């Protein structure tokens, strides 16, 4: 049987509606509006698009947003000064520094500076460290990996006891996703560019999270029958039938994999919508945490 399509748009919309209702109740109780500060350095088109989408989501969900669009050549000292001022500003609940930063800036230092209570992206070493330690909970979990787990859980995929493969080991998706699966009692293998026989590893996976940025890298005959496939990849593939000349595809060959998998996310419309929905949920939670 063809796979059950995991509708990320619908699941994300349901979460957004839940957050909207919680924000409305919060405001009705006379509390402050949850507010997200975005920090964009330089003029990368993709980064600017992501930041704009996050600001739009804040407005749609009844939350506030403040934007800091900074020049490409800003100094480390100047950027750190801005982060410190946002940490001190009680009207700001979440701070999001859009990555990647220009090469001359120390990204790790900037992420370390963000107050753990305002780290709604979940990239602070303190939050990642808590995620990695058994019996400890981070205040916030990185939005895209948490979205992957949320999709699995909402689709009824059993994680506990499953053999899971995470394809990719980035700090933003792969490693946090592996840690989240481990925390839910899956047995996890992380595959990467030095892994021998990636296809063989994936063939044993009850759950696959693919996040390497390689166009349709995972073939359909690599998928274990009935497996759950979460495709984080967003890649441009030439397509003469499209006005743009290309279409978006994932790291998994969707047309092949859907014939074998039990569950699968499409690209677009799978993981993508979850990232911003999770960010909105984290921003709301940040406001609640800072009230307590």
How would you characterize the overall build of this protein?
This protein has 292 residues and is of the alpha/beta class. The protein has 2 domains: 30-115, Rossmann fold; 142-272, Rossmann fold (3-Layer(aba) Sandwich), CATH 3.40.50.720. Helices cover 40% and strands 16% of the residues. It has 10 helices and 11 strands. It has helices at 8-28, 45-60, 76-88, 107-113, 125-132, 143-154, 174-183, 198-203, 254-257, 272-291, and strands at residues 4-5, 35-41, 64-70, 94-97, 163-167, 187-191, 207-210, 228-231, 235-238, 246-249, 263-264. The strands form 3 sheets. A 6-stranded parallel sheet has the order 1-11-8-7-5-6. The protein has a 3-stranded parallel sheet with strand order 3-2-4, sandwiched between helices. A two-stranded antiparallel sheet has the order 9-10. Strand 5 (163-167), helix 7 (174-183) and strand 6 form a beta-alpha-beta unit. Helix 1 runs parallel beside helix 10 (272-291), helix 2 packs across helix 10 (272-291) and helix 6 (143-154) crosses helix 10. The termini are far apart. The mean pLDDT is 96.
